[in-house]
Design brief:
alpha/beta, 211 residues, six-stranded mixed β-sheet, 22% strand, single chain, globular
Length: 211
Amino acid sequence: MKELIAKDLLSIEAVFLSPDKPFTWASGIKSPIYCDNRLTLTAPKVRNDVENGLAALVKEYYPDAEVLMGTSTAGIAHAAITGHLLGLPMGYVRGGAKDHGRHNQIEGKLEKGQKVVVVEDLISTGGSVIEVVNVLREAGADVLGIVSIFTYGMKKGLERLAEAKVENHSLTNFDVIVKVAAEEGYIKPEDVERLKAFRDDPSDESWIKGE
């Protein structure tokens, strides 16, 4: 599954690797990888693999799930389609409470004590998805864990998830993406260690020159 999804994401450039011409994140950090999993929604074959994969993760790791909750905005569509495949209700968590109406931050019906799985598209440092988990817990939900399409496996993200006492299961990850990219000719074999150096410490830009 991990290699299939990696090939899918690379084939539609939902994940794009450019170690020689890095992208710049909003934080200013130089990155050799750009990820836009929204592109999976416009690629029916890839979308099918992704949604069936997410459904399989929920069934395997969270068989007692009662509700799926997507992260806003990228996780909403995936939570909806996966919920449809599993016959489960879904909703989503806003980045902040609305300033009108009922001032909802959680959209969709959620009862206290319900077992919830959070659906996310991408996890890097883990901050945004943990905020969603905390909002759901404060509302009385029993958050079983997270399913996601792709995770970087960054130390900071892993530490934050552990601190929040929440587990994540991803369809694929950075290391698999890099391995498949080298095998398929998206990057040069010698780029693999450079990319892993970025993953290990994004603030250290020595990987750019292969130091």
